[in-house]
Design a protein that fits this description.
The protein is an alpha/beta fold. It has 13 helices and ten strands. The longest helix has 19 residues.
Length: 324
């Protein structure tokens, strides 16, 4: 694992914020320092440094004020009031000023509303809680809302979907800055999945019925993860689950929120990134180990997903010089 550069993180709090929304970035980013992975520091600030009471009734005092945002490398808006009130001009200016001087902006869940209100998302895509996507689109017509995504990262601005998706977004920041191994360490400590692709579905439209087949899907996913280099077509997966391809595809989408092909590709790309970061395998051998068949196919898929090549990715994220 790399130590990474110091990172100053300023997290916004307001009266009525839920403890979960506020605690998520504090927990994930704070764990980076506690685990000794990098010198990351977090500070919670409010308007004028005033005490705030959470939705659960907890009184939070001793908070920083707006000055904490002036040298922050990452400005996090973890939520916004449920009534979607107008964003004060002062907060819009703080977001714009932070963005203009090069700080990264993260609007988690309803925190996408104040981020969009600042104008830094105009002409771009964003995501918020799926239940408020229509309100977001109506209020911010210059921003394209994608209600199905878990998170969308433009590099300088990150938005995430509802509630638990903030965990995915924060782990994505850890992974992007410190690598897959660091993200896995944090995820293990928090007992959550180390990585979910940003375009994975936010939610399942209806509750999953407790019927036969869900166990078969779970077993098949576990088997597929252990056999990424092999044949993982819908037919092969369905056969493993002892289901017809049509029934398997339908049930798979219900359980995972995505198609078998999309899921397999995401897992293969994720494993390719891990191998590029942590091993000296050639690109051709990484492609073979992850089931892409050839280095050419891996490069094409990798570039399409991450806008970079496997070799460039390795230079950026590996611990040292590795075999191209």
């Amino acid at each position: 694992m790399r130590s990474g550069q110091p990172l100053r993180i300023a997290i916004h709090a307001f009266d009525g914020i839920t403890a979960f929304h506020l605690s998520t970035p504090l927990l994930v980013f704070g764990e980076v320092a506690r685990a000794g992975l990098a010198d990351w520091s977090t500070v919670v600030w409010s308007e004028g440094g005033a005490a705030v009471r959470t939705a659960e009734g907890l009184l939070l005092d001793g908070l920083a004020d707006e000055r904490a945002t002036r040298d922050a490398d990452l400005l996090v808006l973890p939520s916004w009031p449920e009534d979607l009130r107008e964003v004060p001009a002062a907060l819009r200016a703080i977001v714009r000023d932070a963005h203009d001087r090069g700080a990264r902006i993260a609007g988690l869940c309803l925190g996408a509303f104040p981020v969009a209100a600042s104008g830094v998302l105009d002409g771009r895509t964003a995501v918020t809680h799926w239940a408020r996507a229509d309100a977001f689109a109506e209020r911010h017509p210059r921003v394209e809302v994608r209600p199905a995504a878990l998170y969308i990262d433009h590099g300088d601005v990150l938005t995430s979907a509802g509630t638990a998706s903030a965990l995915d977004a924060c782990l994505h920041v850890v992974r992007e800055r410190l690598g897959a191994a660091a993200a896995a360490t944090i995820a293990s400590a928090l007992v959550v999945a180390p990585h979910r692709e940003g375009d994975q579905a936010q939610h399942v439209a209806r509750p999953l019925p407790a019927i036969a087949g869900e166990g078969a899907i779970a077993e098949t996913l576990e088997w597929a993860l252990a056999n990424l280099s092999g044949e993982l077509s819908v037919a092969a997966l369905a056969k493993r689950a002892r289901m017809s391809p049509r029934s398997f595809t339908r049930r798979f989408r219900e359980v995972t929120g995505t198609s078998p092909a999309s899921w397999v590709l995401a897992q293969r790309l994720d494993e390719a990134r891990r191998l590029l970061e942590t091993t000296e395998l050639s690109v051709a051998r990484v492609a073979d180990a992850c089931g892409f068949g050839s280095a050419v196919t891996l490069r094409q898929r990798f570039a399409r997903a991450y806008a970079t090549t496997p070799t460039s990715y390795r230079r950026r994220f590996s611990d040292g010089a590795m075999q191209p």
